[in-house]
Amino acid sequence: QYYKDISPTTAKVIDETGSGCELLPNIVDDYVESITVVKPGFRYSPSATIVINGGFGTASATPVIKGGRIFSAIITATGSYHNKLYKYVKTYIK
User: What burial letters (b/e) apply to 7-24, b meaning 16+ CB within 10 Å?
Assistant: First the structure.
């Protein structure tokens, strides 16, 4: 048996023109329930995307942009097992 600590869940905006946005994923029962916009940043284009790292499964969100700033995020997939310690059991068959 061994344990694997998964990195804490993070979210960031990917965009060629915008910068300065800070996001905080809100985890409830191992799932990404919502994302809080801590700082909206500036100059974000309509093609900006949000990348969520951590957990298993794919969590995803779409940014809501107003005037080049990230106003909010719409969760499109919650993912699973965010911010957890995992226990794996390896079995060998002879």
Answer: eebebebebeebeebebe
